[in-house]
Design brief:
Blueprint: E1 3-10, H1 12-16, H2 20-28, E2 33-41, H3 44-50, H4 60-67, E3 76-85, H5 87-95, H6 108-112, E4 114-115, E5 121-122, E6 125-127, H7 131-141
The protein binds inosine-5'-diphosphate and magnesium ion.
């Protein structure tokens, strides 16, 4: 099995419940490398793009409210890229099943997830399921310079018209 990259997002409930350290400790069991990490304020636009494949589901609106932090009053998530041998499978297995009640109790979702009365699966972590999804998601959440490896091809662009902020 080749080396792979996978996206992990510690969702707003993970941060709100102060589980970040516990979850990172569980993830470190895989001995994979963290090659990118950042705290992200999730916009509705990013949420809708990330979960575009679920747009027709009845729980979509609640899911967007969940990942944007609307449900928890805390709009931060921690996004990470893990890299190494069979990274996608290793992290996916450690995260556990989507439904936290069906997740094996020793998985991250089994340990820390719950189902809200509204029906939302509050499962503390997102992980990519397969290589095409990982590439799409990593490119959505990170710019090339955020990642310490050259994961995917890049092209150089000159953008003098782009307004950016520097320290005053
Ligand atoms: P995954 O996160 O295990 O890959 P997906 O099917 O991609 O699962 O769904 C994305 C997220 O949407 C889940 O992590 C969960 O928070 C939520 N979700 C998925 N299916 C349901 C459902 O049937 N009811 C409520 N929430 C769901
Ligand atoms: Mg998924």
């Amino acid at each position: 099995m080749a080396e792979q990259a996978t996206l992990v997002i510690i969702k707003p409930d993970g941060l709100k419940k102060s589980l970040t350290g516990n979850i990172l400790t569980r993830l470190s069991e895989t001995r994979l490398k963290i090659v990118a990490a950042k705290v992200v304020r999730v916009s509705r636009e990013l949420a809708e793009k990330h979960y575009a494949h679920l747009a027709k589901k009845p729980f979509f609106e609640e899911l967007v409210r969940y990942i944007t932090g609307d449900l928890h009053g805390d709009n931060r998530v921690l996004a990470l890229v893990y890299w190494g041998e069979n990274a996608i499978g290793k992290i996916h297995d450690l995260a556990g099943a989507t439904n936290p009640e069906q997740a094996v109790p020793t998985t991250i979702r089994g340990q820390y997830g719950r189902i809200l009365t509204s029906g939302v699966f509050e499962n503390v972590i997102h992980t990519s399921s397969e290589p095409e999804e990982a590439e799409r998601e990593i490119k959505l959440w990170f710019e090339p310079h955020d990642i310490v490896l050259d994961l995917y091809p890049v092209r150089e662009v000159l953008t003098p018209e782009r307004k950016s902020q520097v320290w005053a």
